[in-house]
Amino acid sequence: MSELVTGEAVALELRPAKLPSRALAVLLDLVVAVAVYIAVSIGLFAATASLDEAAQFAVSIASFILVLVGAPIAVETLSHGRSLGKLACGLRVVRDDGGPIRFRHALVRGAIGVIEILLTFGVVACVASLVSARGRRLGDVFAGTLVVRERVPQARSGFVPPPPPWLAGRFSGLDLSAVPDGLWLAIRQYLTRMQQLDPQVGWAMAERLAADLAARTGSPAPQGVPPAAYLAAVVQERQAREARRAFASGPTADRAPTGGWPQPAPASNAYRPPAVQPTFEAPPASSPTPPSATPPTPPVPHEEPSAGRSGTGFVPPA
Q: Which residues fall within 8 angstroms of residue 89, CB to CB, at 6 or more apart?
């Protein structure tokens, strides 16, 4: 990877194209250009057969410049650095700051390409590309451009490598509650990309992350354990705890193990009505009469005839 800094101070990681891919792209472009030049030459020869030799020679030179020099410049300018051969090989010409090229960049590259590619049969371009650290030829050096690869094989992302087998379950008693989510994300990103890093840079980064993790957990990393293996083992322990927590609190415990309909509850847990059914009786006589009820009619008093006197049939008024 080559780090390019844009005008906005943004670092871009680009992979410069090497000599084999660039040579193949140039070869494809030359084959197409020569085929077009031959077809154009045949047509011009038939059209200028009545002219003298000087005119025919001038027309042939003009067609050579237009087809083999002007056409590639126009194609690179209009396609922003992708000719037919570069498009087939997954390459693109960019500026030193990573931006798209313009007409002046394509003009300088094409003009110098006539000398180092066409007139010297590519020998100067090959030597310059082998000497350059980023595989640039003389046209790229003078134009301030760089040929990079657009189609880079994607690495496996999101896959955390497992720890060594002898570390499995060794950190089961570690307290991970104080580790923030940002540190977990940094550890996961490092583990997924540690194969792409420089060995010394990756080792230093793993030591720093391991020290931060040990400070959060309150337990130092074991002696003799590589920091990357320690990080992978702790991440695996966290994932195992989350999986156990998710399956323990999930609804799978209430389902039938065979995947069918849930089985009915046992008879001991079935609903049974109470032995004594509640009855709704009238309130006792001593309970106060509701205000909305009609007051009862008082009984009519009457006297019983005494044993010593006869009843006259007179009843006192109520």
A: 17, 21, 22, 24, 25, 28
Kindly report each contact of residues 222-228 with a partner whose C-beta sits within 8 Å and lies 24 or more positions away, as own/partner: 222/170, 225/167, 227/203, 228/191, 228/194, 228/202, 228/203
Hunting for tokens 């020569």 — which residue is that?
34
The one-letter amino acid at 121: F
Q: Read off φ and ψ for residue 178, nearest 5 degrees.
A: -90, 0
**DSSP-derived 3-state class of residue 100:** strand
Distance linking the first and last C-alpha atoms of the chain: 121
Q: List the beta bridge partners of residue 145.
A: 95
Q: Encode pLDDT of 225-265 as tens digits.
A: 888 888 888 888 888 888 888 887 554 444 434 433 334 44
Residues 113 and 254: their CA atoms lie apart, in Å, by: 75
The reported pTM is: 0.48
Helix (H) or strand (E) holding 91: strand 91-95
